[in-house]
Write a structure and sequence with these properties.
The protein is α/β, with parallel strands linked by helices and 550 residues long. Helix content is 57%, strand content 18%. The chain has a domain at 1-123 and 451-519: 3-Layer(aba) Sandwich (Rossmann fold), CATH 3.40.50.300. Strands 2-1-4-5-6-7 form a 6-stranded antiparallel β-sheet, covered by helices on one side. Strands 8-11-12-3-13-14 form a 6-stranded mixed β-sheet. Residues 2-510 form the RecF/RecN/SMC N-terminal domain.
Length: 550
């Protein structure tokens, strides 16, 4: 429960420290006195977003600190998961700096707003006037059913499964689209691939073919020069072999006289041997040089095929054609194997869907079980609040659609009068009826949860007289097992509180500030008398106030 709230430099508040007790606490004050500021500060410390507009003095930081007694609410595991120090008397602090930056701390450990919001759902339910208008919102209605049905863990599992399902389905859709696009190109790609495969290309083939063709096309010139080279080698008078033989003979005669002559003679001998080898190869080359028109035509056709393929695919080498062939092979393979891949992905989607369906069914069954009890409880409470003929029609239908909280379609209808037609709450219920319905819902929720604190911001809007007495009784009943803080304008409700606080404005050094104080017994009588009869308090108003308090 909330034990204290400290506010510094927030809106119209310079500095304010409030201690709260268990039971039913009442907060009253004139319109515009600053009651909403208190809720704003409390919302801030519990994770609401803020900016520098909340600062009273824009050159100083705003600090809001809340102390909460959480010893009875089994939150140790939450603190462990969030890596926070658990304290039975937990302190939450929020700071808004003049720069606009925000910092939050739980027991002096820095935390994110997400952690604060998660902690808030386990500590305090702040009912605002705006929340009453959410009664017709299906998300709120589902939250009500799920809270009573204890669906929290099942819903978390469902949401994880839904994320997995959506991801798997997205992958499947992408694969199907990819196959559809690939199918449109499949025949053409297969034709290109087969054409390249039939060509049986080799990476260095083009250069070798061009060389062979060049040789055949110049066979006469090659034959002429080879013949002349052979004549120069073997001529008896001036041939290279004859000349080298003579040179070798000359040097061999002087080789014994000096080492340098011996080396020269040896080199000439080696040259002679090399020339003999060259001569043999020249003879062979000359014998093999012959014009073959069929071979020339075959080489030319092969080269032309390669040139045509390169031109067709806008490349300039066989290596590029081979790379293209590999790419086409992959595209063709994707299409040919796509059916199997799609089937595997579809099976994956189906497997997740089966688990989701099972979870959705369990969630739906749990909701259905609590509907009769919820209907009876709400109608019973509303009967006590002067709506004896109020009826609810709550129906759940399991659909084929995966919603974010299951597969149920919910019809949550209301009829205020006997024989009246059922309709949406916002269309058939008045403002005062909506307030009573919301109070009834909060009472039912409080009986089925371990929430430490609930705060009502003028939930009594639109009611008066005996109904306000009954609403006060319900709040008092709720306060027997949880802390209830109520902001109200009704004296009947104010008189039911275990403690009473007043919000008021006062002038301080040419500025208006909001203050709050806990009222003594006498001050409380005066406050309720003012609520009954206005500023000019009559004796009858004072007497009535005492009667209400007693």
């Amino acid at each position: 429960m909330l034990t204290s709230l400290s506010i510094k430099n927030y809106a119209l508040i310079n500095e304010l420290n409030i201690d709260f007790q268990s039971g039913l606490s009442i907060i009253t004050g004139e319109t515009g006195a600053g009651k909403s500021i208190l809720l704003g500060a409390l919302g801030l410390v519990l994770g609401n977003r803020a900016d520098t507009s909340t600062l009273k003095d824009v050159e100083k930081k705003c600090i809001v600190e809340a102390q909460l007694d959480i010893a009875k609410y089994k939150l140790e595991r939450f603190f462990e998961v969030q890596d926070l120090d658990y304290e039975s008397n937990t302190i939450i602090r929020r700071e808004i700096l003049p720069s606009g930056k925000s910092r939050a701390f739980v027991n002096d450990t820095p935390v994110t707003l997400s952690v604060l919001n998660n902690l808030k759902t386990r500590l305090i339910d702040i009912h605002s006037q705006h929340q009453t208008m959410q009664l017709s919102d299906q998300e709120f209605q589902f939250q009500l059913l799920d809270a009573l049905a204890g669906n929290q863990n099942k819903l978390e599992s469902y949401k994880r499964g839904l994320t997995q399902y959506q991801h798997a389905k997205k992958e499947l859709e992408a694969l199907v689209l990819q196959q559809r696009e690939a199918n449109q190109q499949y025949d053409y790609n297969l034709h290109l691939y087969n054409e390249l495969m039939e060509a049986d290309l080799k990476e260095d083939e083009q250069e070798d073919l061009e060389e062979q063709l060049e040789k055949i096309n110049n066979v006469e010139e090659i034959k002429l020069h080879l013949s002349e080279a052979l004549q120069m080698t073997f001529d008896d008078q001036i041939g290279l072999q004859t000349l080298l033989q003579t040179l070798e003979s000359k040097l061999s005669k002087i080789a014994p006289y000096a080492k340098e002559y011996e080396e020269l003679s040896s080199r000439i001998t080696s040259l002679k041997i090399e020339l003999n080898d060259i001569a043999v190869e020249l003879e062979s080359a000359n014998e093999n040089v012959d014009f073959d028109p069929q071979k020339a035509e075959k080489l030319n056709d092969r080269l032309q095929l390669i040139y045509n393929l390169q031109k067709k695919h806008y490349v300039s080498s066989n290596s590029e054609l081979l790379e293209l062939q590999e790419s086409l092979a992959q595209k063709v393979e994707v299409v040919e194997n796509a059916e199997h891949a799609i089937q595997e992905h579809q099976e994956k989607v189906n497997a997740v869907a089966i688990k989701l369906d099972e979870l959705a069914k369990k969630i739906s069954e749990a909701r259905r079980k609590v509907v009769p009890k919820l209907t009876r409880n709400l109608e019973g409470i509303l009967a006590d609040l002067g709506m004896a003929q109020a009826r609810f029609s709550i129906e759940l239908n399991l659909s084929d659609t995966y919603f974010k909280n299951g597969k149920d379609e919910l019809s949550f209808l209301f009829a205020a009068n006997k024989g009246g037609h059922f309709g949406e709450l916002k269309k058939v219920a008045s403002g005062g009826e909506l307030s009573r319905i919301m109070l009834a819902i909060k009472k039912v929720l409080s009986e089925n949860s371990q929430l430490p604190t609930i705060i009502f911001d003028e939930i009594d809007t639109g009611v008066s007289g005996e109904i306000s007495n009954k609403m006060a009784n319900i709040m008092h009943e709720m306060s027997q097992h949880m802390q209830v803080i109520t902001i109200t304008h009704l004296p009947q409700i104010a008189a039911k509180g275990n403690q009473h606080y007043k919000v008021y404005k006062e002038e301080q050094k040419d500025t208006t500030v909001t203050q709050l104080k806990q009222l003594s017994e006498d001050e409380r009588i005066v406050e309720i008398a003012e609520m009954l009869g206005g500023k000019d308090i009559s004796d009858s108003a004072m007497t009535h106030a005492r009667q209400l308090l007693n």
